[in-house]
């Protein structure tokens, strides 16, 4: 396998082209008596775009991300970008941990979390809880190459991650993820249980289903599934488009930075614990770093395509199917609805369930300290099984 160092270096000409496009934006109308109920509010977006074009310092954010050691690896024809940060302290060395992001996220959403895991002693923890952290960009996201053909679903990605960890010299490792990261982490547990020390998720994948008749569910379980369905009806239009006709949408989002920002920032507002004000949970700079990565790498089309792939190969648990490695769930109060715990326990070997006091879907961005504490606590008794 070919592994090469990687540094983010966006050409100045591309930054100037972005600013030109932002200045030349054609704005749609919006009824004066509406805010966010029709989608992204135009007043908010105008302010965000103005900052993106004149106040946001991409070079500063680029330099911050480049403090993370980054590499690229060719895994049998699939080129993956990843950060790899070794743990500090602890006599036995860091426990290998692969973190997987989702959509509309990127590897950058773990920037605050990584040092809390690699150097816990510097962040109020115990040196013995250190991890060697590997953070790949999903195929077709950010600085990983877009897949040239179909077939790159969460199960395929789980196999890639297993290869990646082998190439890095980690025969056994831990895994964590939210959003698509939860799908890939679950697939790792199903496909490579012998490799995993355990898995930790802060979301249950949207395609998750267990094969039981509706009558087999309790009243509480049916209510949890109804809440999930109600959320999908009210908020899931984006997912329906992305899992059915992503290419048609991609032309607009890949061509218009304002359109791209509108499509993504609405999710940060709707899914975070922000009380309707994005910056209470996620700063302007964090939002725009993420959107800029999609823009500069032109990966919005390939990122959305993962929804199409997962529709063709969803996460379905047949009788006897189960993730048979120790599992933990950190449930943040503003997370997208997930099934009842009793349903999840039928599909996962659930050892830990933590009700978090605050936070939403973007846990690593919103509440990195809480997430780091829960990850450390869950894997602490499992470390001895990694060797």
What does this structure look like?
The structure is a single chain. The chain is an alpha/beta fold and 387 residues long. It has one domain: Alpha/Beta hydrolase fold, catalytic domain (Rossmann fold, 3-Layer(aba) Sandwich). 43% of the residues lie in helices and 16% in strands. The chain is built from 15 helices and 11 strands. Helix 8 (237-244) crosses helix 12 (300-312), helix 9 (246-255) runs antiparallel to helix 12 (300-312) and helix 10 (257-271) crosses helix 11. The longest helix has 17 residues, at 219-235. It is globular, with a radius of gyration of 20 Å.
- What would the principal axes of the Cα set say about the shape? globular
Tally of distinct domains: 1
Please name the CATH topology: Rossmann fold
The average pLDDT score comes to 96
How many angstroms separate the termini? 24 Å
How much of the residues is beta strand, in percent?
Answer: 15-25%
Strand arrangement in the largest pleated sheet: 1-2-3-5-4-6-7-10-11
Low-confidence stretches: none
Order of helices and strands: EHHHEEEHEHEHEEHHHHHHEEHEHH
Summary of the model, kept short:
By secondary structure, this protein is an alpha/beta fold. The chain has helices at residues 12-23, 42-54, 58-65, 113-118, 154-167, 180-191, 219-235, 237-244, 246-255, 257-271, 284-297, 300-312, 341-347, 363-366, 368-379; strands at 2-6, 70-75, 78-85, 95-100, 131-136, 173-177, 196-201, 209-210, 316-317, 323-331, 348-355.
């Amino acid at each position: 396998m070919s592994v090469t160092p990687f540094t983010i270096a966006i050409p100045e000409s591309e930054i100037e082209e972005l600013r030109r496009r932002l200045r030349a934006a054609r704005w749609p109308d919006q009824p004066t008596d509406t805010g966010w109920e029709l989608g992204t509010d135009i007043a908010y977006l105008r302010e965000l775009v103005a900052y993106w074009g004149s106040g946001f310092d991409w070079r500063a954010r680029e330099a911050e991300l480049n403090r993370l050691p980054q590499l690229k690896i060719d895994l049998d024809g699939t080129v993956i970008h990843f950060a790899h940060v070794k743990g500090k302290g602890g006599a036995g060395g860091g426990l290998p941990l692969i973190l997987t992001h989702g959509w509309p996220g990127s590897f950058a959403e773990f920037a605050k979390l990584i040092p809390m895991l690699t150097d816990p002693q510097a962040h109020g923890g115990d040196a013995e809880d250190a991890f060697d952290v590997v953070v790949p960009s999903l195929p077709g996201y950010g600085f990983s190459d877009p897949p040239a053909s179909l077939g790159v679903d969460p199960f395929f990605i789980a196999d890639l991650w297993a290869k990646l960890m082998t190439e890095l010299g980690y025969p056994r490792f831990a895994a964590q993820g939210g959003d698509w990261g939860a799908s890939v982490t679950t697939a790792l547990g199903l496909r490579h249980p012998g490799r995993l020390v355990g898995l930790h998720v802060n979301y249950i994948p949207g395609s998750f289903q267990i094969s039981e008749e509706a009558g087999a569910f309790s009243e509480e379980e049916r209510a949890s599934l109804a809440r999930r369905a109600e959320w999908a009806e009210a908020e899931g239009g984006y997912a329906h488009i992305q899992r059915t006709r992503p290419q048609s949408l991609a032309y607009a989002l890949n061509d218009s930075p304002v359109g791209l920002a509108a499509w993504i920032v609405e999710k940060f507002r709707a899914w975070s614990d922000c009380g309707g004000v994005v910056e209470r949970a996620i700063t302007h700079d964090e939002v725009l770093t993420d959107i800029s990565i999609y823009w500069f790498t032109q990966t919005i089309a390939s990122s959305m395509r993962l929804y199409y792939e997962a529709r063709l190969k969803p996460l379905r648990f047949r009788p006897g199917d189960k993730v048979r490695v120790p599992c933990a769930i950190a449930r943040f109060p503003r997370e997208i609805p997930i099934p009842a715990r009793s349903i999840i326990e039928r599909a996962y070997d659930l050892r830990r369930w933590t009700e978090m006091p605050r936070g939403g879907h973007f846990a690593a961005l919103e509440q990195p300290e809480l997430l780091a504490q829960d990850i450390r606590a869950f894997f602490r008794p499992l470390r001895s099984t990694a060797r």
